[in-house]
Amino acid sequence: MEREMKRSSSAAIAMLLSTTGLASADVPNVVTDIAPVHGLVSRVMAGVGEPSLLVRPGSSPHGYSMRPSEARALDQANLVFWVGHELTPWLEGPIEELGGDAHVIELLEAKGTVHHDFRTGATFEAHDHGDHDEHGHEDHEEHAHDDHGHDDHDDHAHDDHGHDDHDDHAHDDHGHDDHDDHAHEEHGRDDHEEHAHDDHGQDDHDHDGLDPHAWLAPENGKAWLSAIAEELSELDPENAATYAANAAAGQAEIDAVVASLRPDLALVAETPFVVFHDAYQYFEHSFDLAAAGAISLGDAARPSAARLAEIHETVRELGVVCVFSEPQYNQSLVHSVAEAGDIKELVMDPLGFEIALGAAFYPNLLQDLGASLAACK
């Protein structure tokens, strides 16, 4: 009798382990484009699985060449989350060719996403927060995707623009089999200005479509958590309750960070500042801030001499207090703007190069952006 009970118990344990293994095997293989999206997906998948990341931290998403390990991850994906072709037009082809069997979710199209159109010119008028160019998902569908000013991206060289020392960074252990992946040599920051974007010429090709840097609006981060949980639950219903609970917890974490940032950012609401490239208006609108201008366009293309001259004039006329560089790009242009006036040089990174990947990434990104702007005084 005792032996029969032991056999029954062993059989039950074996069945439980088998069932657990099956559930684990059914967790989707998820691929994300950039670190902020990876952070949101990691928050929803916490305790269930981990997504892969395509664009390595420290590299520009506007022009990139995938390593073989990243291409393999895309080929094996069941589910792909990306911001959209407005941000990474080079990724559209690989998704179609390698991720053809995967569910592909363009987060710019997610329900509840707030959109802003690109600003024009090197300098910006102070925006009216009661009636700015915000529009929701329903309005966005009326935009023809081909009108977003990115057609000339197809001519970009897609080599990496990361740091020369990036392979030694703490992010290297996040789902990339880096062996033999160095066939795509990374280009350091000093090379970036004269690299992929040179084929734009010096005409500044003003953007007149959707600004894709939508992850920098906390309200969009919350909307995307819901969309991510919904898509994961469709493919993996056994873990649907976990995905929903994780998304709700992530939204509460975003609310807490936003509340903590508001007092400090209110102190610099009227402080004029210049950013490296026009990527921050979603964050600005969320906290009633207003950049005076951007050195480069929203795709970080090399600015023309006329654009730089306009920025220099703005620095002098408005008494700009700070100019922000980004770790992905050469800082020489920022130095030249800073020299146009007695202003601070600070760093602000929309992609969170210094932030550890994982479930806490997105609120930490918001915290870092807020701290950078709060230091501009």
UniProtKB/TrEMBL annotation:
SUPFAM superfamilies: Helical backbone' metal receptor (SSF53807)
Keywords: Ion transport, Signal, Transport, Zinc, Zinc transport
Cleavable signal peptide: 1-25
GO molecular function: metal ion binding
Compositional bias segments (type: Basic and acidic residues): 124-211
Claim: Signal is one of the keywords in the record: yes
The family this protein is said to belong to: Belongs to the bacterial solute-binding protein 9 family.
Record's protein name: High-affinity zinc uptake system protein ZnuA
